[in-house]
Amino acid sequence: MHKQYWGDITAIGSLPDIGTQEGLQLVLQSLPRIPHWPQFPKRPQEYLTHQFLQVLIEHDIMEVSPNGSPLINTERPQFIEGLTAFYETYLEATGGNSAALEKFAIPQWAGEGFAALIKELKKNSYVKPVYVKGQLVGPLTAGLQIMDNNMIPVFYDDQLRDVVLKALTMNIRWQVKQLASTGLPVMIFLDEGLLHAYGHRDFLGISAKMITNAFSELITAIKDNGAEAGVHFCSRADWELLFPARPDILAFDAYSYFSGMLAAADKVDVFLAEGGTIAWGLIPSYEACFNETAAGLCQRWQDYIKRLEEKGVDGERLRTQYLITPSCGTGFYTPEIARRVYRLLRETGELIDKTRFAF
After folding, report:
1. pTM score above 0.85
2. Residue 243: left if φ>0, alpha if ψ -120 to 50, beta else—which one?
């Protein structure tokens, strides 16, 4: 199975606040084949609750204070009424009501980069991508950062977790529809920064099944709406949680956490055999980028491939079914780091493409 994006480069999504237009140009110039919409997480209005879950605020289900965690207080008098209205909106949106679907949109004031990318791609300019990439918060990150009235993460509560997941599935539907209006095929990454919470003593009440089911619900929504489904996870993570959810793309921090992939080598081989893609986060998205070169990162990738081949993973698929990305987003680093990361990404991707069958 051939995929247009195999052997290419893209990035995770977040940038330091260098301005919407400058951020967009950095993306388009560095990633002309698979651009993503630029997120600016240092802007308060681009916090996950506003970008992806504003619908819960507008239905009086969730409240956000400037200095505290997002809160779903089930004891508020308006909670039941708001919850009922939310599910009505959700059902209307699933039934094809475009006005209802707009309730789940990224507000323009909370996602200037999203609107700017779509506008640019529709201008039929010099950029001729093969794919366009969207992204949204992962289910565990959202569910562990939003609290209930007892200050317990809502991921533990079946009903509240369901509300958050349903809001995210509709944001997925809206994103795919908007991005597909450019005429390009779409990939959507779930950005999951808290997968390492599984098994930690502070989160023992969270089972593998709960995590896998949450990912499966969102991945199914991505696929059902005609897009490729990716999961980006950084830091230490248990790969075994993700395979049953059947993503198309697994994007991980290969620069620092290759050992996790090596431990799951047998499942990685099956994943590739079924047409999956590994997105290698080879470019360190922080200060270490200044200590690296494209040649050195290419050699690192080659060493990783050899070690996986020794574990029985199909080498030809490893050399074909891949993307190269930064290890994570650059949104909380300096503009100089972001520019270095995107330049190194492009240089490394080009070098790997030239040499991937030469070893």
Report:
1. yes
2. alpha
Provide the residue count of the chain. 359
Torsion sign, CA atoms 298, 17, 27, 225:
positive
Is the Cβ–Cβ distance between 111 and 37 less than 8 Å? yes
CB atoms within 10 A of CB 3: 19
pLDDT in tens, 265-295: 999 999 999 999 999 999 999 999 999 999 9
Question: In this predicted model, what pLDDT tens digit does every residue of 12-57 receive, in sequence order?
Answer: 999 999 999 999 999 999 999 999 999 999 998 998 889 999 999 9
Pairing of strands 132-137, 186-192: parallel
The span from the CA of 52 to the CA of 299, in Å, is 38
Q: Write the CATH number for 154.
A: 3.20.20.210
**Quick check: is 1 in a domain?**
no
Question: What residues in the chain have per-residue pLDDT under 50?
Answer: none
Assigned domain for 204 exists: yes
Domain count, the chain: 1
For residue 3, is it within any domain? no
Confirm whether 74 is domain-assigned: yes
Residue 149's domain comprises 8-355
Of the candidates 265, 184, 189, 274, the one whose C-alpha atom is nearest the C-alpha of residue 232 is 189
184's CB contacts (< 8 A; 6+ apart) are 121, 129, 130, 131, 132
Residue 250, Cβ density class (10 Å: 0-12 exposed, 13-18 middle, ≥19 buried): buried
Under a CB-based contact definition with an 8 Å cutoff, are residues 268 and 315 in contact? no
